# Entry
Amino acid sequence: MTGALAAEWIKLRSVRSTCHVLAVVAAVLPLVALMAWNGATGWDSGTPEERAAWERAQPLEEAVLPFVQLCAAVLGIMAITSEYATGTIRASLTAVPSRRTALAAKAGAVAAVSLAMGLVAVFAMHGIARLVIGGRPLADYDEPFSDAVPLLLSSGVSVAVVALVGLGVGTALRSTAGALVVVCGLLFVLPVVPAFLPSPWGERLAGVTVSDLAVQSAGGADDPLLPPLAACAVMAAYVGIALGSGAALLLRRDQ
# Structure
């Protein structure tokens, strides 16, 4: 297993899309600084009503998190679909005959890289926003940093969750475009659906979306559907279903 993990780490580093994903996520940080500066400027020059709106604004790292999750999904998807596209999947499965081991090793490499990327990104975005905004009471940035840590940690973990879901869907579909459609539906379409459903079904569906699960797992939701441990279990179920489906189809195929 150690050799398989080392091999997957080397392959993940050699895939061009990995460098592109990391570069895109890094490029978001100056954008967050610009958004924070805009918020600070708006606060300084705003009327009392405008300032009240700024106080209720969503923290910038939460607003940008879906984009970081999408980048992580691309990382996970390309980790497997690039091998199908180039035909190197045959060599990979020859080197590691156990397909479960091969997929587990790939999942380990993807999880490690995406978790590090997610944690660095959310903490950096929060730190930049807090530094630029200063002591202004915008989006809770004037609260103690320790109060934000649980949500920042769960947000970073959610990035790894989406990456592993992307890996599982990519393994199942063997198509970059198809897997991206599925993950985009999960990240951007599913959270919109609850608005069109009657109560309480809308609230229940909203409570099991990835974005809401990250907040609930940190214990930061105002009216949570699930307690923190249950929210963590549902996020784990997303990963289990995606990777389980991918593994089942991988075992049934010739390659």
About this structure: The CA atoms of residues 16 and 225 lie 40 Å apart. The mean pLDDT is 87. The chain is about 80% helix and 0% strand.
